[in-house]
Amino acid sequence: MKIILKNFKLLSVFLLVIGFTSCSDDDDNVTTPATTTVIDVALENNLTSLAAALQATDLVTTLQGEGPFTVFAPTNDAFTQLLNDTGLDLDNLSTAEEALVKNILLNHVIIGATVTSTDLVNAGSGYTNTAATGPNEANLSLYYTTSNGVMLNGSSTVTNADNTATNGIVHIVDEVIGLPTIATFATTNPALSNLVAALQLADSGTPTVPYIATVSDATAGPFTVFAPSNDAFADLLLELDPSGNTALGDLAPATVDAVLTYHIVSGNVQSSGLPNGTVTTLGGNITADNTAFTLTDPNARVSNIVTSLVDIQSINGVVHVIDKVLLPMQ
């Protein structure tokens, strides 16, 4: 890593000398505006570990390009923690390790937009896509919230925002943003808390699959999950008991397990690939309408796919939020 850092610093000095030389050309009185790329901004903020990782994965040239780029740049301490946790050595990466580190770094980059902290705060919370890829080369999603500072995927917080560059913007974050799993997005979005509770309840019995472990496993799948919203679960409980006296925890784990299987499909099916007709879930067949954007369970109950919450892409599958819980044949 020392060799990488030394070479990167020499490269920076060389680029700086070239800049001064071009500005002092006696044959041309036109002053060329200084170019400060997102790489330069990272170096100005002493993010040497990020710089070393970018060089080790051949991403320096990419981020010196036209952009625009939004970069969430981890601190040196954040990178040290990552290397300690994973045992990776930037000076001695295997081909597979280099690909992994490169994808992790790209998970900190939004290409084609300069997203300021004000943009994020005004949006409140939501999803965007990073340059990292998952199954079928689909770009991974990034979930942001702003109720207590800008937080990414529920763990990484922006500590120094809006460092501008000529080809984008850099926000410094206190933790490396790992490649998200389905569990990442289920547990970080409060609108899916009932789904998480249902997965845990099913796991307490004898589940068809160990749900929490499976959706948390980056090497599992990929799967497509039709994720009922909290309101969808609330409506189901009233459907089952109009008196309103039944809570999710009152249901038998086996019952919840049978229900959940109708929301999981093998393979990574984004909304653009949703068929018009039969979809085979782990529990049985449901019917999709890719024009009306609906799913129909075996009881002819129709659920709308929430168009603003589709294609939430993780490393082990994709999530589409729906507004009604699908049920097995009654």
Automatic annotation (TrEMBL):
Q: Which UniProt keywords apply?
A: Signal
Species of the source? Winogradskyella thalassocola
Q: Which residues form the signal peptide?
A: 1-25
- Does Aminoacyl-tRNA synthetase show up as a keyword for this record? no
Q: Which SMART domains match?
A: FAS1 (SM00554)
Which InterPro entries does the record match to this protein? Adhesion/Biosynth-related (IPR050904), FAS1_dom_sf (IPR036378), FAS1_domain (IPR000782)
Q: For the FAS1 domain, which residue ranges apply?
A: 34-177, 179-326
Q: What is this protein called?
A: Uncaracterized surface protein containing fasciclin (FAS1) repeats
The reply on keyword Cytoplasm is no
Give the UniProt entry's GO cellular component terms: extracellular space
Pfam families per UniProt = Fasciclin
